[in-house]
């Protein structure tokens, strides 16, 4: 946090004050886990303080001491590095057949999800190689079967079988996670594939900064840069208003003369690496009304929260596990195991 503001004396003073305040919060919670009732989801949960609560407490505490985006410079650097290699990745994808491309896209999302400054194991990796070296290493390790391995079911839903082509989804909500390779080399190519198939895509991102998670305010600029190298993204971004007015709400009033399905950005009303879908922004609630596919990406949104959530539409949960305790407790696996869980829509 101090480094994000150049290490000036005022930042150091506020950093020391934050350290004392947050340490005091943690010390009290060690003694009395139910001390902060507002952090509890419901009365029955008293005494059960979850990781999501601690992450939210930390972000609130950082903001209290005027650290509004501690990872800003890191995010900008990783976005630039990832955008530089995006054209080569898109060219590689376009030379594949549909089945190979879909698997490569899902592998890419899982591989790119390794870029998480909330994981100690992943932070250690950053000191051993460049962002592209780490991404390629991660891609090379994407060996199936994954710990949760529903890709073949998802592939059949997307591509069909025995010559039968399924209808494309009408609107997909893509809950994105980290800046840099995660969103640029992982989720944007997947969004592009859905757009290619005629599906409206809504990128759902945090309203407030948390760790190195990308925010809704940052996404339009990233999309605009990516659109310079891809006609599919450019047309969709124009149809969704991203290349005109970044935050224009076009969900209920799309351009009638547009020849492309729209790519849109919506904020989720959250400022945490996790998300409680009972408490979201009105914009996200409106966007969700016509959605028939939800894609949750990342350890916080797809595993820590919502791994066992059931939706009224199809859902795909994608994440690389970067915490040993979570790996053992949730999926009975190991660190760097991958999760690809697909759930079809319940029968009406």
TrEMBL record:
PANTHER family: PANTOTHENATE KINASE (PTHR12280), PANTOTHENATE KINASE 1 (PTHR12280:SF34)
Stretch forming the signal peptide: none
InterPro entries in the cross-refs: ARMT-1-like_metal-bd_sf, ARMT1-like_metal-bd, At2g17340_3_helix_bundle, Type_II_PanK
Protein name: Damage-control phosphatase ARMT1-like metal-binding domain-containing protein
All copies of domain Damage-control phosphatase ARMT1-like metal-binding, residue ranges: 42-330
Cofactor needs: Ni(2+); Mn(2+)
Gene3D superfamilies: AF1104-like (1.20.1700.10), Uncharacterised protein PF01937, DUF89, domain 3 (3.40.50.10880)
UniProt keywords, alphabetically: Hydrolase, Manganese, Metal-binding, Nickel
